[in-house]
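Step 1: inspect the first sequence and its tokens.
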Amino acid sequence: MSSTIDEQRDSSPSSSATAEGGGPRRWWILAVVALAQLVVVLDATIVNIALPTAQADLGFGNDSRQWIVTAYALAFGSLLLLGGRLADLFGRRLLFLVGLTGFAVASAVGGAAEGFGLLVTARAAQGVFGAMLAPAALSLLTVTFAEGKERGRAFAIFGAISGAGGAVGLILGGALTEYLSWRWCLYVNVPIAIAAIIGALVFLPRREPRVAGAPGLDVTGALLSVAGLVSLVYGLGSAETDGWSSGTTLGFIGAGLVLLAAFVVVETRVANPLLPMRVLTDRTRGGAYAAIAMASAGMFGVFLFLTYFMSTVLGYEPLPTGLAFLPMIVSLMVGAQVSSNVVNRIGVKVPVVLGFLVAAGGMVLLTRLGVDSSYWTGVVPGLAVVGVGMGFVMAPAFSASTYGVQAEDAGVASAAVNTFQQIGGSIATAVLSALAASAATDALVGVDPSNPAALLEASVSSYTTVFAWSAVILAAGAVISALMLPHGALERDPDAAPVIAH
């Protein structure tokens, strides 16, 4: 593959120096990429705490509230693969800048919205530009840190941001909602994006290594993947309100599965697939994608239902609720850093499997919560243990998800990471919400529903049910990772994406 790269840049002294010893500029690139990733992951949760206030301000109903979140998820999840391929075709730097700029504009429009329609449209636009930004950011990191200890450190930071970003979003959303306005949960993206844009213009190279004969755009695959993912995510989102047996839910889920199956068939037959099967069939990358999907599914129970527990049982306001997740953020970052120090020596399998088991144990601790539980003795132990485990999973899995990928596939491989993360979370949203509702209903059988104490007990029962199922999901993640991920340190592929010359 190296023979297809621009020979002048590939043989330059600066390129050689960068590949061997690195330099301070690549760490500035990491800072820029981390800011961009923070923007994307914050918006998965930062709006959640602000929803009740936004609903009261704009006057939309409870049945419309979910679409403030779903509009973003639909656009983001369905367009990620297309965004990744566009980054490969037109350049990562260009897509990175376009995604950041568009995301900032959409955030400003959403923050200024005076009606439900404009707010939903702005959230969808955030998803569109986020689908350009996220794969470009990860692929930039992939080609900047190609191997060695520096790659481990860089992906530990990136994985920590990706794993803890949801909790950071809850903290920031609570603070902004309580002390400024719900609108600042959207406005806050603007200064972060501007800082990242300035950093990108300064530090990202204007010329990127180009791959000769880069594949064209697979239009059929793009249409099938977008339609399939939109249908699947929409169907799963409808399950909570319409029920699992409704025609809308089953129809859209079924259509989504059929379209995605057709997408896989097409990708094995077209000359220039949107998602080459070689990206998925590699054992290391395939195992990493599965681990990221399972980790995202398991983490949903922590973010959403523990938020409910702290607000309904402990009576926390938005800001204290967000701050209550700090133990998980700190422990996740510690776990990510520790795991990065061992990946180069023993590979990703052991830390990922161990991380899943530890995180599952943390979820088991959370199943012991009751109406009389306190934050320090009831919540913190489980939260801290889950954080350590997720740190051991996320950093190595993110690093392995693009390891050894060919240069022309760096963008789409990065997009696949975010797609699996999004789909894992979306499926968990629907399944765990339905399990929680069923558990609450069962807890109220034969009980006076007008009794506040009984209602509170039923709510806690629904939360602990979710934590138990999340533990099962994480334990399943350990089994899947043990079976799929290769044992031992990863070997460098000579055809892998090259290090960017600075």
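Step 2: inspect the second sequence and its tokens, then contrast the two.
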Amino acid sequence: MRLRDQLVAGGFRLGWRFARAVPEDVAVSASRRVADAVARRGGARTAQLRRNLAHARPDAGPAELDALVRDGLRSYARYWLDVFRLPGWSRERTVAGVRLDHGEEVRAALAQGRGVVVFLGHLANWDHAAAWSATELAPVVTVAERLRPEAVFEQFLAFRRSLGVDVLPLGDPGTFPTLVRRVRAGAFVPLLADRDLTANGVEVDFLGARVRMAQGPAALALATGAPLFPFGLHHEVFGGRRTLVLDVAPQVPVPPRAPGEPAREHRRRAVAQMTQACADALAAAVRAHPDEWHVLQPVFPER
């Protein structure tokens, strides 16, 4: 296992160096060829992606699903390529490559010194979105799964911090209190929540099935009084220019407390309802751009 860990960590280090050393058009073409080869070969992860995408397009036939899986793998490969190249991008490129749609309320809240909580799915390139937000919106704080091996986790911490993003480890007892303090100080806190990694998630309806999603965004918004917004992410290409679009869904309201309702029960109900609202917004984003939903792990109950 130590040898395997060393090879994995070395592979990531090589990726960060090699991807920036190769001309971009060559790297993009290579990532596309690799994705197509993976799609043709198949395998467990590719089959899992196919099952996940079938929920987004339940009426798709085999040929359409084949194309969707191929496009999804191409998008996922491009995500990794851009991650490896991001540290070498100029501030101008990072900023110019992003457009914020329907973000007036987000900007207004941050301008007033209020923190903002964002519910994110694994869509498009959330790392580019975070780097742009750190430059254009407010200090960015997020939470990341502790990867194995540890050396890879440390590499990703260094990578995201180089983008101006403060990263806290998932599962650490001090993470939620730190998030509360940072939100109250006016931070922008995007949280990937379409996979429940804690076994404490909220059960929601999502793309025609009952699944569990992380309760962190709703719980943090409730604890701080900060507004909660679901974001959809996708890319648009016009005239050869590729733009990452951050599409802000309407703010998720806090359900009012019923007369005589215990505070604990109200919190439980509010977290469940707010997470469901976020799941509905995410489902709309996935249906609109299923190839940009990068989830190759089980999400839905298997038949």
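Step 3: confirm your contrast with the notes below.
Residues 90-292 form one domain. Residues 105 and 251 are 8 Å apart (CA to CA).
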